[in-house]
Specification:
5 domains, Alpha-Beta Plaits, transmembrane, Rossmann fold, Immunoglobulin-like, Membrane-bound transcription factor site-1 protease, 1017 residues, alpha/beta
């Protein structure tokens, strides 16, 4: 055995000695399925009225228009809130005709007291549980208890966050009202000593939590249990709102009634361990804003759709809500925890962080339904950890309660938070909750205005994705959305426009800056969008450019009529590089991506029935993040196109990347792209997805509770629209839905749910590759199992095509398929000077699932790189040349083109179709760059000095001293543990070195001895 083998064996033994695998208890994870209730609509009023007044408003209006009472009815709500005034009603339309329904709704909306009419929605919590095991990696140390016994207090979440320090100081949550919106709580549960009220907002009779899931009991236990598995604030006043049934079903109207009652009860903190992707449920979103305006602090879970990015749930992603993600007890981001960014702003803008803070949410202990404890995992666990911690914090500073609001508490929590190493802002928000540090911040807090993020730094890995690609002259404008937290007042206004102050000493003059802000900030929060580009002067600069965006905000001081001006600064540190060559620049088409909400855009992988909606935005920083990282690692620069094809300069880019498009195309876009490819040498790569009208009708989304059918508005991709776009190049895709495993050379491939080519150009040098696929569409339509190997069909799925000017005229007749009539928007096409006389190239693949991280089975990043080598450099892979089957597949182009589905709702939310129907002109982005200012041009911050609190009382001083002492001890213990680990690692390394030297010495001695013996012989 040589020295290397010995080292490997020893290292393996040492490595295994640090691993302890122990079975975890059953883990639970929850997600939400939100659907529209048929024929039920929420009528929102501008004010709150009693039920008879609201009904009289509706009846009077509808009767005046000769609409009979039998055609509609007000749904009776039988809950605790019916005796109070309300600002909404539920109207059920009895008639089935769409025209009658529309006329009734239009009549209701015309009443001056009616604010809006929107569909009623239902939510079903999809809670799953499964057994698993984890391996924890640490240097072996004594354990006081094994997993299946009562765990040590050191593993309880209250101990991890040192809640006992505050308990020992007499801080226990007393005086704080906490509302828990969940599945209820069993009466007289032994863990709780201060349940003030239990109310039921569902259609069930029982106030108790359901046996089995007991989610509401668990959440209440994390917040306020006083026995066994301890909660953070055992003396907090609990208000239990049952808003989910035993079958985990709820309705928007139940939440609205319960929210109204919470406002009436003047609760301080509201925990909402639910969420979903539907940020367009306007009554719900607006009611959350009203809660914040009434100084109720909502804390909500981020969602359990990680590790994918762009999966934050509403309402946790709202600026006025504290959104909470999950970590495990090793301070690692939990795999299930949803990541940012928010996707509300796409495709025209860019998402916010959305996620505010993370805390323990994996294998956390909480109360079981009747007695005892259980463990759960999920961000619905992390949320009550923060809610309980917040209640504990506030009870320790009752003299500062007049300064507490949704913005100030968020400021206190995030200022006390600790950044986790190796995680970016979309993963951890502002960091890990630190209870004691936040207590310190609270005790010294004075009202102020702050920003999230506080700055933008392209040199910090925490700032991914901004840190992943430098800016350069000619790149697409970078957007950062900043959340403004105003701890001073409920309503404020922005004075004048923000100012741009470049740092001349650090090349700030090379930056162009534009901003967008609302004039009014409400409630407690607002936003600022900053647009960043490199100007002509910075074309050849490589390095860092710095500057500062300053914002002046006028607030009304709490409890007074005085106004106060606050200056808020947003520092910029931007990494700049010279413009890369054209063959390294890729343009990602975001404009033609659609997702849920608002429409039913179906899943791209048809076999994943548990995830019926495509809602992750198809952005390079969400579900295509892994692809983006792969492209950046090999040296490509990726810009995002947020506008039509008529708005970019084709001579700047080598390839336009169109992945999974669901949107239609303007006629101007089609003709412009034709010109770009033939005249300007732009190349195009398309990764499509399945499309088949019969399959679309078959996968209607059915909700058993509401009995609502949703028919997709298009397929996985909008193939009829793609065919319109590709028509000038003689290429078309069909409606065969293929699925199957196959190999391309040594590469294993999986075609999840893809389309195939039915029309290809006739140039002999082109490449067309086929594969044997199952007819997945037929299997879905007939409800049969997957086809056998013998029944697979060999069809073209991949093509590389060099366009030629002589083919251009041949493809001119009959522009496209069957839809969109003439669309004239007056968009002027840019005239581009081509840097090459050759026409561009087209690469096609029929399935994008191999690039999408959502349900990735076999990644095909290598294939995209092969395509880019072809489109950028005209190089055809030897592998694809070998697999070329074009002569065998040329007869497949006689099939009919797919048509658009009749009765589609696509026009309701399509940017393209909406522009046509409303006679709008589609405009390109235009930015008004801010004039460079200096520090002297702007107001200086005037500190707030009018708030007076008893900050010098003896009790507060004792609190500060005790907390500081605990934090110092904690820091000392951490350093001690680090020193011990360092010492152990040093000793292990030293031992390995000694062993290696010994082995080498023995080996040399052995060789020397043998050589000597041979010489003697």
């Amino acid at each position: 055995m040589n020295a290397l083998k010995i080292i490997i064996v020893i290292t393996t033994i040492l490595y295994l000695s640090k691993i302890e695998c122990s079975p975890e208890r059953r883990r639970h994870s929850d997600s939400f399925q939100i659907t529209t209730v048929p024929n039920e609509f929420i009528v929102q009023f501008y004010g709150k009225y009693f039920a008879d007044i609201r009904k009289n408003y509706l009846q009077t209006k509808l009767s005046s228009l000769n609409i009979s009472n039998w055609a509609w009815t007000v749904v009776t709500r039988q809950n605790f809130g019916t005796s109070f005034p309300s600002d909404f009603d539920i109207v059920r339309i009895v008639v089935e005709q769409a025209t009658s329904t529309a006329s009734i709704l239009q009549a209701i909306e015309s009443h001056p007291a009616v604010k809006a009419v929107v569909p009623q929605r239902s939510a079903r919590r999809l809670l799953t549980s499964y057994d698993n095991a984890t391996c924890t990696y640490h240097i072996r140390q004594p354990h006081g208890a094994v997993r299946n016994k009562k765990p040590s207090r050191a593993r309880q979440v209250t101990s991890k966050l040192h809640a006992d320090v505050l308990w020992n100081l007499g801080i226990t949550g007393k005086g704080i009202k906490v509302a828990i919106f969940d599945t209820g709580l069993t009466k007289n549960h032994p863990h709780f000593r201060n349940v003030k009220e239990r109310t039921n907002w569902t259609n069930e009779k029982s106030l108790d939590d359901g046996v089995g899931l007991s989610h509401g009991t668990f959440v209440a236990g994390v917040i306020a249990s006083s026995e066994e598995c301890l909660g953070f604030a055992p003396d907090a006043e609990l208000h239990i709102y049952k808003v989910f049934t035993k079958s985990q079903v709820s309705y928007t109207s139940w939440f609205l009634d319960a929210f109204n009652y919470a406002i009436y009860r003047k609760v301080n903190i509201l925990n909402l361990s639910i969420g979903g992707p539907d940020f367009m449920d306007s009554p719900f979103v607006e009611k959350v804003l009203e809660l914040s305006a009434n100084n109720i602090i909502m804390i909500s879970s981020a969602g359990n759709d990680g590790p994918l990015y762009g999966t934050l749930n509403n309402p946790g992603d709202q600026g006025d809500v504290i959104g909470v993600g999950g970590i495990n007890f090793e301070n690692k981001i939990a795999r299930f925890s949803s990541r940012g960014m928010t996707t509300w702003e796409l495709p025209f803008g860019y998402g916010r962080l959305g996620l505010d803070i993370v805390t323990y949410g994996s294998q956390v202990e909480g109360s079981d339904v009747h007695k005892g404890c259980r463990r759960l995992s999920g961000t619905s666990v992390s949320s009550p950890v923060v809610a309980g911690a917040a209640a504990l914090l506030l009870s320790g500073a009752m003299h500062k309660m007049h300064l507490i609001n949704p913005a100030s508490l968020k400021q206190i929590l995030i200022e006390g938070a600790e950044k986790l190493p190796n995680y970016n802002m979309f993963e951890q928000g502002q960091g890990k909750l630190c209870l004691l540090k936040s207590m310190q911040v609270l005790l010294s807090y004075k009202p102020k205005i702050s920003l999230i993020p506080a700055s933008l730094d392209f040199t910090s890995n925490y700032m991914w994705p901004y840190s992943s690609q430098p800016l350069y002259y000619g790149s697409s404008v970078v957007i950062v959305n900043v959340t403004i937290l105003n701890g001073i007042s409920l309503t404020s206004r922005i004075v004048d426009s923000p100012k741009w102050i470049p740092d001349i000493n650090n090349f700030g003059q090379y930056l162009n800056i534009s901003t967008a802000t609302p004039r009014i900030l409400w409630p407690w929060t607002g936003w600022m969008t900053v647009y960043i580009a490199i100007n002509k002067n910075g074309e050849n600069h490589e390095g860092i450019s710095k500057g500062n965006v300053s914002l002046l905000i006028e607030s009304i001081l709490l409890g007074t009529n005085e106004t106060h001006l606050s200056e808020v600064n947003f520092p910029l540190t931007i990494k700049v590089t010279p413009k890369p060559p054209r063959n390294k620049r890729v343009l990602w088409d975001q404009y033609h991506s659609l997702r849920y909400p608002p429409g039913y855009i179906p899943r791209d992988d048809l076999k994943i029935k548990t995830d019926p909606l495509d809602w992750r935005a198809d952005h390079i920083h969400t579900n295509f993040r892994d692809l983006y990282i792969h492209l950046r690692n090999v040296g490509y620069y990726i810009d995002v196109l947020r506008e039509p094809y008529t708005c970019f300069n084709a001579s700047e880019y080598g390839t336009l990347l169109i992945i999974d498009p669901e949107e239609e195309f303007f006629n101007e876009e089609i003709s412009t792209l034709e010109s770009y490819v033939y005249d300007n040498g732009l190349s195009v790569i398309v990764f499509a997805d399945w499309y088949n009208i019969t399959v679309m009708k078959k996968i209607r989304f059915f909700d058993e509770n509401t009995r609502q059918w949703w028919i997709p508005d298009t397929g996985g991709a909008n193939i009829p629209a793609v065919n319109d776009l590709l028509h000038p190049f003689g290429i078309a895709l069909g409606d065969f839905v293929g699925e199957g495993h196959f190999k391309l050379g040594d590469h294993s491939m999986y075609y999840a749910s893809g389309t195939t080519m039915i029309k290809i150009p006739h140039n002999p040098d082109d490449i067309v590759v086929g594969a044997n696929l199952n007819d997945q569409g037929a299997s879905i339509i007939t409800n049969s199992k997957a086809a056998t190997k013998e029944s697979k069909v060999f069809l073209p799925i991949l093509g590389l095509f060099q366009t030629k000017s002589e083919d251009r005229q041949r493809n001119k007749p009959d522009m496209a398929s069957n839809l969109i009539a003439e669309k004239t928007y007056g968009v002027k096409v840019k005239s581009n000077a081509s840097d090459s006389n050759s026409a561009g190239r087209i690469a096609i693949y029929g399935d994008s699932n191999c690039l999408d991280s959502t349900h990735l089975e076999k990644a095909c990043y290598w294939l995209l790189l092969t395509f880019l080598d072809f489109t950028m450099n005209s190089h055809i892979s030897g592998l694809l040349k070998t697999l070329n089957h074009k002569p065998d597949l040329k007869d497949k182009d006689q099939l009919d083109l797919p048509v658009r589905i009749p009765g589609s709702n696509l026009e309701k939310f399509s940017k393209v179709l909406n522009a046509k129907s409303n006679g709008l002109t589609q405009k390109c982005e235009h930015f008004e760059w801010l004039r460079a200012a200096s520090d002297a041009d702007y107001h200086k911050h005037v500190p707030v000095s009018t708030w007076t609190t008893s900050d010098t009382n003896e009790h507060q001083n004792n609190l500060i001293k005790e907390i500081a002492k605990t934090l110092d001890n904690q820091k000392y213990n951490n350093n001690t543990n680090l020193n011990i680990k360092t010492t152990i690692i040093f000793l292990i390394s030293l031992s390995l070195i000694i062993i290696v030297l010994f082995v080498i010495f023995v080996k040399k001695y052995y060789v020397s001895s043998n050589f000597g013996n041979k010489s003697i012989n």
